[in-house]
Design brief:
The complex is a heterodimer of chains A (274) and B (225). Chain A is mostly helical. Among the domains of chain A are: 57 residues, no CATH class; 101 residues, no CATH class. Chain A contains 9 helices and no strands. In chain A, helix 2 crosses helix 3 and helix 8 crosses helix 9. With 225 residues, chain B is mostly helical. Chain B has a domain of 80 residues. Chain B has 8 helices and no strands. In chain B, helix 7 runs parallel beside helix 8. The longest helix of chain B is centred in the first third of the chain and has 33 residues. Classes of the chains: A mainly alpha (274), B mainly alpha (225). At the A-B interface, helix 2, helix 3, helix 5, helix 6 and helix 8 of A face helix 1, helix 2, helix 3, helix 4 and helix 5 of B.
Chain lengths: 274, 225
């Protein structure tokens, strides 16, 4: 760190103290713990600004916030796992003494002894930190891989294959709720409402043909020429619309987060907007 | 031993879980194994935390570049760990949830983790905007389709979309940008998503089989002799 960084850090610390004081004063009539609340809101605002400072360039304030985030998040998930999984689900099945200590109801079952298996495997996983016994961590890893493979095999076969394929075979010329009522009614209502027969049938055609053409695009065992090539081209168009829609959706999600952060800065911290 | 045992464990666990679906007495086995999985995952969190500490303590001890920030990581980690494990400031006994309102753990989550996390993600809005400015050129038909779809979805989710096309009569309301955005999401987008999902599903199924049968062994690492 050079001299200018020290000066900048001193200015930021000074600004933090000023902001904290002003915030505590402004909260004094509203809450009892105004000094603590003022500190928390100010630190939250400064951390937000530290992350935003990366838009200019990488700097020590951003690095500070980044390193803090890594440390605090790691501990957060460790604690969540400990209290919700170990204390909530494991200890009540392993030991009555531990259950009583953590004040959780003991769940007796003759099969409770099997819960030592994940405990032993979990302890073997920690062997990863040892250079000599590190290979033992492959056993729990194999258990994790086997469980994931076994569960995903059924789950994906059901939800991502069978359900998706069956949902693709939709009525292409109206159904019970939208029976075919003739060409006159067909084009009369171009809306998303239930009476918009054209839009409903068009959507079904797009879904049916779009899925087939999209799958044809992903089929590389046959050269994409002729009718197959044409279907593949349609598949690309459908996929492009999907990527565009996903992109737009993602951007809007990020923008709403940005709006949330700016609202916090201008309303909760600076109190410029109400 | 180093290779055979893990391959056998993967085969037995995967095989048992698949066949438990066809055997009514073993119906709940997937839930039991999911719980086993969660318990091992907690140890994986401990491993991650331990490794994080090891990396940063080494960096600190050797005074490598930016070692000062490692102090921040270590201090943040230990502080949050103490707050969570000892339930500091928790308004209740040991049985009260760790993230009860008013506890130090919850306060740090609300005023440190949450703002940092959402600001990190919101930062992506700027990068996505600058990347799309460079990448979004209507160079050909496919790129134009992507551009139009993204544009309609973006406009459709703002009041501006309704402001521009609100005058279109109800019988042609599909051409109002918010409705068009809904239609794109529910029709062509759904078709593309479904094609991708079916592809992913087939990929996961084949990869699961490869893992269970021991054809795929890359998870064992390089020195799997």
């Amino acid at each position: 760190m050079n001299r200018s960084t020290y000066i900048l850090t001193a200015i930021v610390v000074l600004l933090f103290i000023v902001s904290w004081t002003l915030k505590a004063v402004s909260l004094s009539g509203e809450v009892d713990d105004n000094i603590t609340r003022g500190f928390l809101i100010t630190i939250s605002a400064f951390l937000t600004l530290a992350i935003f400072s990366f838009l200019y360039k990488d700097n020590p304030f951003y690095k500070f916030a980044e390193h803090l985030f890594v440390g605090v998040s790691a501990a957060f998930w460790m604690c969540q796992g400990f209290w919700s999984t170990l204390v909530g689900n494991l200890f009540p099945r392993l030991s009555e003494g531990l259950s009583n200590f953590f004040m959780v109801p003991y769940q007796y079952s003759p099969y409770n002894i099997t819960y030592w298996i994940p405990v032993i495997l979990g302890l073997l996983l920690l062997m990863r930190l040892s250079s000599k016994a590190g290979w033992l961590s492959r056993w729990p890893l194999a258990f994790i891989v086997g469980t994931t493979a076994g569960l995903n095999f059924i789950r994906y076969l059901r939800s991502d294959f069978v359900v998706q394929v069956s949902s693709t075979f939709v009525p292409l010329l109206g159904n019970e709720s939208h029976p075919w009522t003739g060409i006159g009614d067909f084009f009369s209502h171009l809306s998303l409402s239930a009476s918009g027969q054209f839009m409903m049938i068009l959507a079904n055609w797009i879904i049916f043909l779009g899925v087939i053409c999209g799958l044809i695009y992903f089929f590389f065992s046959k050269e994409h020429k002729g009718v197959f090539g044409f279907a593949s081209r349609i598949g690309i168009w459908v996929l492009m619309i999907t990527f565009g829609a996903s992109f737009g959706y993602t951007v809007m999600g990020r923008i709403s987060l940005l709006v949330g952060r700016l609202t916090f800065l201008f309303r909760d911290w600076l109190e410029i907007i109400s | 031993m180093k290779r055979l045992v893990p391959l056998t464990i993967t085969f037995i666990v995967g095989f048992v879980l698949i066949f438990s679906v066809f055997l009514p007495p073993a119906e709940g086995l997937d839930q039991t194994f999911t719980l086993y999985f969660d318990i091992i995952a907690v140890f994986a969190f401990f491993l991650g935390g331990g490794n994080l500490m090891r990396v940063h303590i080494n960096k600190l001890r050797r005074q490598k570049k930016d070692w000062g920030f490692s102090v921040v990581t270590i201090a943040g980690f230990l502080f949050m760990l103490a707050a969570g494990l000892f339930k500091i400031g928790n308004p209740g006994d040991i049985a009260t949830a760790v993230d009860t309102q008013g506890s130090l753990f919850k306060t740090v989550f609300d005023y440190v983790i949450n703002p940092l996390q959402s600001t990190m993600y919101s930062l992506l809005a700027f990068f996505v905007a600058s990347a799309s400015y460079r990448a979004f050129r209507a160079k050909n038909r496919e790129a134009t389709l992507l551009l139009i779809a993204a544009f309609v979805i973006l406009l459709g989710r703002t009041p501006f979309g309704m402001m521009v096309t609100g005058w279109i009569p109800d019988s042609f309301s599909i051409f109002q940008i918010p409705n068009l955005a809904i239609w794109i999401m529910n029709s062509p987008n759904l078709a593309g998503q479904r094609a991708i999902i079916i592809g992913i599903g087939l990929g996961v199924i084949s990869m699961s089989l490869r893992l269970i049968l021991g054809v795929e062994r890359s998870y064992l690492g390089d020195d799997n002799a």
